[in-house]
Amino acid sequence: MASGTIFNIQKFSINDGPGIRTTVFMKGCPLSCIWCHNPESKRKAPEIMYDKSKCKMCGRCFEACKKNAHSVNCDLHIIDRSLCIECGECVKECVFGALEITGKTMCAEDVIKEVMRDKVFYDTSGGGMTLSGGEPMMQFDFAFELLTLAKAERLHTCMETCGFAPSEQYMKIAPLVDIFLFDYKETDSNLHREFTGVQNEVIIENLKLLDSIGAKTILRCPIIPTCNDRDEHFEGIARIASELKNLLEINIEPYHPLGKGKCELLGRDYRLSDLGFPSDETVSGWIDKIQSKTPIIVKKA
Amino acid sequence: MKINLDFLKKNVENVTEDIEAYKAIAKKNYFDNENSSEIMRKAEFLTAFAREMPIVLTDGEPIIGSMRFSRKFLNLNKGHITVDYRMLLREGIAGVKERISHLKTPDGAAFSVALDAFSEFIARLADAAEGKGLTEPAKNCRELLSAPPKSFHSALQLVWLVHLFLHAEGSASGVSFGRFDLYMYPFYKRDVELEILAAEDAEKLIGAFFLKCCEADESQNLTVGGDSENELSFLILKVCGELAVKQPSVSVRVGKATSQSFFSAAVKALTVGTGNPCFFNDRVIIPALKRIGIEDVDAENYGIVGCYEANPEGCCFGTTSSAGFFYLHDVLTEFLGRVREESYADFSTFLVAFKSFFKKKYNGEILAYLRSDRWEHRVMGECPSPFESLCIGSCLESGVCAEHGGAKYTLAGINILGIGTLTDSLYVIKKLVFELKEYSLSYLVENMSENFSDEALYLKCRNMRGKFGTDDPETNQLVRELSLFISELLDAERLHDGVVSNGGLFVFLHDVDSESYPATPDGRRRGERISYGIAPSDIALGKTLTSVLSSSSNIANDRFANGCPMQIRLSRTELSADNAELILASLIKGYFARGGFHIQINIADTEELIEAKKNPDLHDDLIVRISGYSDHFTRLREDIQDALIERI
């Protein structure tokens, strides 16, 4: 029985594929997008999240920590993450909810048991389970088992993926996935590396490969002002769409700055400091531009 | 007759009526009338109402008779009935008069006076309407005096006049229309076949009827669907969605005969976002009614009364809340107040002791009250209402008014509040005291009675995971056990004179009226709201919409025919135009498949509600459903607004 690290099982997800779904968020991602809104998904291992605003400086966590990772410096509560072994002892003591551990190890069977609690709503809505992350393909064996079990329960399945994984793994997992929610982040490969840490050739190859074997996809395109809100990229989205036979629709995911707060909780730097929510007009402007170049339906995710 | 709905809509609230005149008539002819029997002085008050009440008419209205006087409750009758409109429409005023003339009972004499007052009022209304050029409504009224209605228009007029007169008699609440599409359909069908009524005219008439309902400030329930689904049911839903007014409260019965297209039409109306219509599950409600002794044919013919109460239509005196209110959090805090010492080996021993205390308290308070002369006097003696009674078919047969037991069924409604808060409280005690053994029971109880002076304890209680509403197997099992226990308690003892106790898991608005409710073990501090209906507590963490619905379906919904309300809210931004109907329909269907009794859904964003609270003038059109009836959000009390903002 495979087990893996997940950081959330989100019930009543209505924007991650058709119908009412449960989204399983898996930890670990090979990309490091500068706009990442789920920074807690980046590392595969569980991590401590610390919310300064809830902390009452009661000191219970100092006593609980066997590695002395918690300390106070100039009235600031410091966590030395190099000492932390993510044992979670401090979290148990924190009654104020300032400390949380993100990520827990679960076996595939327990995850599916949890997912199946909403079965009646999948049946009434044509929904099911969505794997997301992070990048589900980072925990390939676990993802494969989750999908196998889901299929045994006759669940509709979606997988959100950044496309950056070995092609043979995609070939192997494709029969278990009803719809891939496939990220397409930047057309220019060098810019792609600048924004995400990797070039996009492998990703595009995987996308075309999946399409060639009949896998259904929805393109998910994060649009980030000052990064990829360029006409060339919009054209690139329409171009790649025209090359795919089994593409269902194109989803635009407008930038939102919610990752910023999470980076603070995790003690990480956030690299896009000054961007806010794009206005409705801006977003519909993007959608119109892309829609004018492709017959595939373009809509906000 | 040309009907201008926009004009009528504007006039619903612009026209003012002399409420004082109504009150003066009541004072002189009812309150100061010491010569007649209780039932007769009510009949005499109606005679005075018919002769003296100023007539108010609006230009161009197709249905006449103003109900704007009924904004302040006198509570002279109990309301909360579904009228036997099938009988009234079939027999007409003359037919009913003929039946009353054969009655030899003392109450029968009062029925006769009340019915004559009704005729007199209609005649006076017709005269005034004629004078104002409302020729067709005037003609309808005149014809109704001597014969049953023939046309759809005139049938609507009779229904409205009966409704108005019920309010005149008592100014009570919860006077409900019952299965409107069932009893109005023959008239609609006749007119359509004779080609004297087009669908769009029928729609306008229904719209005008809805606007008449908006004249009163109370919940007037109107039931559609179930096995009576027909073309008229669709028209009603269309008007409900397009006119988007606060009244009547439209209730959709979902059952075996419900077609996909009808269900979709109901969901479509709901997406407008007024909280109207709400949905009722035949599969659960009909057995719930049979369980308290309602005959099959009557149970299948249920209509919704007031907010959520299912009553067999036209033959039942339901007294929704006559047995008073039973607060579950009260039972628990009283029990805990007596058990300072640690005398329980484990949680199950503790639970047994709690249940036995619960039973004693219930028997000593509610049951003793229901069996007492006091109850007999308050409910059955205090306000016998002749007009209300002649609207219930079985009272016309018995010649005995509803309050004297004349209806086929008399139910004693028992309202029970706070099952979510109770479940969470017991769960927290189970975990913290008996399993984790982190605190002693006496420490928890003592600190709770100090409104949680120990912050760490408070947060542990309040933030505990797995509370009711999170679809956790442990709290699911606990809430089921509690609901079965309560329903068996209600069953155990039969009351006198064929009265049957009828439990419902809510008290109208009392979840919000929580100022004096002391702290509870679930980490709820004094004055905070308690859980409403069968929904979880606001403070329980980790809920989603689906987990809430799944959790609540573990409550024995089929044992509380007096109502198991489930109220949820969805964010408009989350629902996109192309998935809204699918998501709403799937939630309702899924919940009903799991055994839910009722569901009402508000569609509004938290931000939208906060903004409307801040700037009421800009958001007067925002209508929401609360506690079973719809109203303008901006006109609700502040604490009710807050409850809507904070609830899932």
Description:
The complex is a heterodimer of chains A (301) and B (648). Chain A is an alpha/beta fold. Helix content of chain A is 32%, strand content 24%. Chain A has helices spanning 60-64, 89-93, 108-115, 119-125, 140-152, 167-173, 189-196, 201-212, 231-242, 258-265, 280-291; strands at residues 3-13, 21-26, 47-50, 70-73, 76-79, 99-102, 104-107, 128-133, 156-161, 179-183, 216-223, 247-254, 298-300. In chain A, helix 9 (231-242) links the parallel strand 11 (216-223) and strand 12 (247-254). The longest helix of chain A is centred in the middle third of the chain and has 13 residues, at 140-152. With 648 residues, chain B is of the alpha/beta class. In chain B, 51% of the residues lie in helices and 10% in strands. Chain B contains 26 helices and 14 strands. Chain B has helices spanning 5-14, 19-31, 38-52, 85-101, 106-131, 135-146, 152-170, 180-193, 199-213, 231-243, 260-270, 282-291, 296-300, 328-338, 347-371, 373-381, 386-390, 393-398, 419-435, 441-449, 455-462, 473-492, 545-552, 580-593, 606-614, 638-646, and strands at residues 178-179, 221-225, 249-254, 278-281, 302-305, 309-312, 316-317, 325-327, 409-417, 500-504, 567-570, 598-603, 623-626, 629-632. In chain B, strand 5 (302-305) and strand 6 (309-312) form a beta hairpin. In chain B, helix 9 (199-213) packs across helix 10. Chain B is globular. The interface between A and B is medium-sized, with 21 and 25 residues.
